[in-house]
User: Fold Aldo/keto reductase from Aneurinibacillus thermoaerophilus.
Amino acid sequence: MIHSMSNNAVLANGVKMPWLGLGVWKMSEGGEVEQAVKAAVRAGYRSIDTAAVYGNEAGVGKAIKECGVPREQLFITTKVWNKDQGYDSTLKAFEESRNKLGLEYVDLYLIHWPGTSKFKETWKALEKLYKDGLVRAIGVSNFKVHHLEELMADCEVVPMVNQVEFHPLLTQQELRHFCKEHRIQLEAWSPLMQGHLDLPVLTELAGKYGKTPAQIVLRWDLQHGVVTIPKSTKEERIRENADIFDFELSLEDMAALDGLNKDHRFGPDPDQFF
Assistant:
């Protein structure tokens, strides 16, 4: 069981990835993202998730340099955006991201969305970056089972992570089973349903465990073996989101949360987002 902030998921290649990280989507470059990353590190976070399209990689990199924690103790994720998909363009996009972050290597590099027909070429570029030691692990984001099957039909390295929208209204059961079977670590973006936490079951369980609805959802993620990266710019909320290691949801309560599933997405459908 996951009972400490220092616990890690172990990826298929043996690389350790923190179960909890900070997502920095929609954080503005400069002061906002820098302060959030530093606050997260102070609160014990060691994983930071950004992306080229977020436009804040330089701020993340500055905060990493100034946070006082050695680089090798941090786990930094970034992603290649749709317009940069393709072999050569992905290699170029990676160098741009790495330079903005100011890092010698990135811990996890993801294809941000499957997009159209280029993700196999893009994956070949990620495999090269991995073999060259510029990335410690490679993976995908927003891939459904059929995308993974298509990619895995002729890839050399199986994706180590699949970062998807995952929360009690979108439990992704088929995808979870597929990823588990193939040792692909599932990771949740938008775990807190973009703030839509006013569900009676969550309110009830928050009272029962003496936690907030957000903490209940994040604990549910962990107990499903799903890495989670809640986003917040407020230090108090960043700390609160990390206070999920001192309790455990019962099997009955896990099932009650699973029962909320409506296959509802707050973000785009990966089959329709190019």
User: Anything to note?
Assistant: DSSP finds ten helices and ten strands in the chain. Residues 8-258 form a domain with the TIM Barrel fold (CATH 3.20.20.100).
